[in-house]
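Onboarding guide, step 5: your first structure request.
Type a short instruction followed by the sequence, for example:

Predict the 3D structure of this protein.
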Amino acid sequence: MTELPQLVIDREFKAPKSLVWKCWTNPELLARWYGPNIETVIHKFELKTGGEWLNEMRMEKGSMFSKAVFQDVNPEDLLSMLMSTTDENWNIIASPMMPDWPSTLLTIAEFTEDGGVTKLRFVWEPHNASAAEIEMFANMKDRMGGGWGMGFNLMDELLAELQV
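The system replies with structure tokens like these:
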């Protein structure tokens, strides 16, 4: 069996783990950093195994919708979810912008703390993907890290604001 390609981002935040966790799990705070430079609207957020996060990213040319289903929620330590592109009715679809992009991605965020600094390990990989989707992910994953990086930069600003 072939190992799936992964996007792995290791990031440190100058904030306690409890506060970084809150930025990932409080819908009001999450909307402030997720989807940088666009309006993020969270329609539903059930933080529990099997719970859903329904998300809309509003842009000039229309909205992009996504759904995450939480697979594992271990408060302040781990979030694991299946993130999917959806239509406006939350049905999983192929990406309108990149048809061969995986429609569902396993997304894992692990949090550890060392001396008041929180270390995040973020892992993204295709889930139940076709060969074409896996190839597209492998070719594009490093570019996708830039978007997450911009969001994490916004989270740095948010964490600084919350600690004042």
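Each response can be followed by summary notes, for example: Helices lie at 17-25, 27-33, 131-162.
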